[in-house]
Design goal:
single chain; 402 residues; mainly beta; six-stranded parallel β-sheet; five-stranded mixed β-sheet; 34 strands; rod-shaped; disordered N terminus
Length: 402
């Protein structure tokens, strides 16, 4: 009988130290989780409260450190953890395996989160780590695979190996700047797919580069930029020089009854040839008149430019000149089809230029007098009026000695 009682007593003592009964122990020593840190569990709200001053114990769950096993190890009753002000560290393995914990409150008196402190807290979806925390140790939040929202305070200086090895995490908020984050020692296997959103920018884990094109015009340069859509990092930038010159190969033709199609040449401000454009020629382009060509740019260029060319009338083919007196000559020429009239010029030696002598609608014999020289120089051209504008042919020149 005595042996049976002793066995029952031993079983009760063993069970009383296990996780499921730990919260029912009333002795103050049994509720310690640090030299001056204590815990209290409210079974009605499934809330665990850590209070006191100083550091929590470091646990190793099978290997002795401060205390071998955490009183909360693998406890699935806890849904909320509140660490009160005054506690300065979260102990190693303290809440490891508390799979149903949904919320954790960490005060700004905590300066360190120990190794595997929240390992396997699989129901934890968010955590706010205050600015007071400087160290987050190895695998502190390992296997918290439902974590989607993390805020890390600006006071952090080191993050241990795999502390945030959470593949589903896409973005982490950091309370410091980009330059602050770059000073943090971050161990391997952290934030495998997450970008770090700082107060003044984003540090991408995996950049999403996109090519942006600002097309060049006749007034300004353009640019082709490969830039991350998340953080704004520029991978490459190429300047596209503006369009500087748009010319028709020929701007004046002489009527011959055939359609004219002048080639277009385009150069940028670096004197490089541009070929990204289409040319729209107007219909006809055979008769005397003005024709406008439209050049529309594409590719790396934008805008439309218009350039014009003219078709002028034919000139006379031959001028006959005869001496009619010691001081006069007579010139004559044949009719040119399709013109409105003719202009006859004589060279003025004193003014050193050709001056208009006569304008006529029909070919006629014209008498020219010498002006101080023994050679009379002359020129004839045709003209044609189209839509109120006069088009003139090139000159046909000649001379006759007296």
């Amino acid at each position: 009988m005595k042996r049976t009682f002793s066995l029952i007593l031993a079983i009760i003592m063993l069970v009383s130290t296990s996780v499921g009964i730990a919260f029912s122990v009333t002795a103050e020593e049994a509720k310690k989780c640090g030299v001056n840190v204590y815990y209290n569990y409210d079974s009605d709200s499934n809330t665990l409260t850590i209070s006191g001053a100083g550091s929590m114990y470091n646990y190793d769950n099978g290997r002795e450190v401060d205390v071998q096993y955490s009183p909360f190890y693998n406890n699935n009753d806890i849904k909320s953890i509140i660490i009160e002000s005054g506690v300065t560290t979260v102990g190693a393995c303290a809440f490891c395996g508390c799979e149903n914990v949904e919320s954790v409150t960490i005060p700004n008196t905590v300066s360190a989160i120990g190794r595997e402190a929240f390992c396997n807290c699989k129901s934890l979806t968010s955590i706010v780590i205050p600015n007071s925390v400087s160290t987050i140790d190895t695998e502190a939040f390992y296997n918290c695979n439902n974590m989607t929202d993390i805020t890390i305070g600006s006071g952090v200086t080191s993050i241990g190996f795999g502390a945030f090895n959470i593949s589903t995490l896409k973005q982490v908020r950091y309370s410091g700047t980009v330059s602050d984050w770059q000073k943090v020692i971050v161990g391997d296997n952290n934030f495998p797919n997450a970008d770090i959103k700082c107060t003044n920018g984003i540090i991408c884990k995996t950049h999403n580069f996109k090519t942006y094109l600002v097309k060049a015009t006749t007034k300004s340069d353009g640019a082709k930029c490969v830039k991350c859509t998340v953080c704004g990092k520029v991978k490459s930038k190429t300047v596209i020089k503006k369009i500087a010159s748009v010319k028709l190969f020929k701007t004046a033709y002489t009527f011959n009854g055939k359609a004219k199609k002048p080639a277009v040449t385009v150069f940028n401000s670096a004197n490089n040839k541009i070929t990204s454009y289409t040319v729209n020629y107007p219909k006809g382009r055979k008769n005397v008149g003005t024709y406008t060509v439209t050049i529309k740019f594409g590719g790396n260029y934008s805008g439309t430019v218009k350039r014009s060319f003219v078709i002028n009338p034919q000139t006379v083919k031959k001028i006959d000149a005869k001496k009619v007196s010691p001081s006069k000559i007579a010139i004559a020429f044949k009719k040119v089809s399709g013109v409105s009239g003719y202009e006859i010029y004589q060279y003025n030696y004193q003014k050193n230029k050709y001056t208009l002598v006569k304008r006529t609608k029909k070919p006629a014999r014209v008498t020219l007098k010498k002006k101080g020289e023994h050679t009379v120089k002359y020129a004839v051209r045709t003209y044609k009026k189209v839509n109120g504008k006069t088009y003139k042919s090139v000159f046909k020149y000649g001379s006759k000695k007296l």
